[in-house]
Amino acid sequence: AQKVTQAQTEISVVEKEDVTLDCVYETRDTTYYLFWYKQPPSGELVFLIRRNSFDEQNEISGRYSWNFQKSTSSFNFTITASQVVDSAVYFCALHDRGSTLGRLYFGRGTQLTVWP
Amino acid sequence: GAGVSQSPSNKVTEKGKDVELRCDPISGHTALYWYRQSLGQGLEFLIYFQGNSAPDKSGLPSDRFSAERTGGSVSTLTIQRTQQEDSAVYLCASSLLMQASGGVADTQYFGPGTRLTVL
């Protein structure tokens, strides 16, 4: 069973629109960590945020914001006033007590295309 | 400071040949990870190192794959007798501490990857 589900395979928006990328995770642990990474066309995975399960405060960083809701096992990512440079594949990932070998469980990613 | 570096950035090889992929982690990072990204398979975990030790190699897809790390720094992923299904982007990541089960999950920082094409 997938531990991290990103149901949106592709999203297209026009510049300046707001867009939300969904992430639903599955774990039985009370201690876990969630991550978002961005993969632009250059291919390198860029770390965006890490959140532990004990901190449900939403976070805002410039045009980026994250909504963590344990009740629905979701960790959604919103880009406000999107820009062409936001075009990339975005991955949500989970580390929990079952994460042997130090691995991260990644979702399949959401391809975001922002049109000018 | 410098991030994770990988070489080569692209590698084209013929089926049956051996290839070596190199990863240079961020200085001071004790943990190193290899992942594979291929179309339709997403990001697949291969192996991790804590120092020079790889406690479990069961993530490697076959016995044609091996990895080593020397001096607690550079790591090499070797694929012997390459097959077309080995074509993928191989990503390396490093973190300051090992993400021990139940412990603090330190952030993994990724390199640019090596795109391997097996003809």
Features:
heterodimer; A: about 120 residues; mainly beta; 12 strands; about 0% helix; B: about 120 residues; six-stranded mixed β-sheet; four-stranded antiparallel β-sheet; 10 strands
Give a nutshell description of this structure.
The complex is a heterodimer of chains A (116) and B (119). Chain A is mainly beta. Chain A contains no helices and twelve strands.
Task: Kindly describe this structure.
The complex is a heterodimer of chains A (116) and B (119). Chain A has 116 residues and is an all-beta fold. Helix content of chain A is 0%, strand content 51%. Chain A has strands at residues 4-5, 10-14, 19-21, 24-25, 32-39, 46-52, 59-61, 64-69, 74-79, 88-96, 105-106, 110-115. In chain A, the strands form three sheets. In chain A, strands 2, 5, 6, 10, 11 and 12 form a six-stranded mixed β-sheet that branches. Chain B is mainly β and 119 residues long. In chain B, the strands form two sheets. In chain B, strands 2, 4, 5, 8, 9 and 10 form a six-stranded mixed β-sheet that branches. Chain B has a four-stranded antiparallel β-sheet with strand order 1-3-7-6, with no helix packed on it.
Q: Roughly how many Å is the radius of gyration of chain A?
A: 14 Å
List the uncertain runs of chain B: none
Strand elements of chain B, count: 10
Rounded mean pLDDT of chain A is 91
Unreliable parts of chain A: none
Coarse shape of chain A: globular
Instruction: Return the average pLDDT of chain B rounded to an integer.
Output: 89
Biggest sheet character of chain B: 6 strands, mixed
Fraction of residues in helix of chain B: under 10%
Q: Strand-and-helix sequence of chain A, N→C?
A: EEEEEEEEEEEE
Globally, the shape of chain B reads globular
